[in-house]
Amino acid sequence: MYRKSLIIIVGTLVIAGFTSCVSTKKYNSLATRCKDENDRLTARVDELTTSVNELTALNQKLKNENADLKTDTAQLGSAYRVLQGDYSDLDQSFAMLKAQNEGNLEETERIMADLKSAQDDLLTREDNLKQLQAELDAKSHSLMELQAALNRNDSITKAMRKAVADALLGFEGKGLSVYTKNGKVYVSMDEKLLFASGKWDVSPDGVAALKNLAGVLEKNPDITVNIEGHTDNVPYNGTGQVKDNWDLSVMRATAIVKILTSNSKINPKRLISSGRSEYLPVEPNTTAANKAKNRRTEIILTPKLDELLQIIGND
Question: Whole-number mean pLDDT of the chain?
Answer without folding.
Answer: 83
